[in-house]
Amino acid sequence: MSECSIRSAVVTVNDPADLLVAIRAIAEKNSTHIILFDQDRMAGRKHAEAALAHAARSCSEQRMIARTFEMEALLYAAGSRQCTVGREFGIHKGENHCYVCLCPDVPEVWDALCAHITIIPVVEEMSSSEKRARLMKLFSITETELAVIGEERMNELVLERVALLEVYR
């Protein structure tokens, strides 16, 4: 898989299925993959990068769990083999803060996507107690683990969980 490009975006979704149909049409027309990760469930941009890298390797080695590259990336983001869990890491009804990923990057696609989403400048990831609690629950991270490695390294634990999906195949 060629180099991917990742940008932050905001999109208000009335009907997730309608948006995904439009996104898939843009992707197919431009021979690329478009993945939308829910930033509120992600441990930063590195989490999105890791999910894409694992999905690309899985695809190139012809050992994907999912039928599509997009779902494979969502499964890796979730650190799960279950598509229902992976879907939770994508868009949802209402306002979405997301990472928009193009694999491979096709510059014209960004213009086409602007009819559906609003690209925003990269902002520093903020850590909140709410997001901390959400990530701990999603990735089964215990207070004991955090005490051992330090709170500031929680994102590394999430990336470890993502990588463990390779082992659980």
From TrEMBL:
<dbReference type="InterPro" id="IPR036504">
    <property type="entry name" value="CGI121/TPRKB_sf"/>
</dbReference>
<protein>
    <recommendedName>
        <fullName>Kinase binding protein CGI-121</fullName>
    </recommendedName>
</protein>
<comment type="similarity">
    <text>Belongs to the CGI121/TPRKB family.</text>
</comment>
<dbReference type="Pfam" id="PF08617">
    <property type="entry name" value="CGI-121"/>
</dbReference>
<dbReference type="InterPro" id="IPR016799">
    <property type="entry name" value="UCP022062"/>
</dbReference>
<dbReference type="InterPro" id="IPR013926">
    <property type="entry name" value="CGI121/TPRKB"/>
</dbReference>
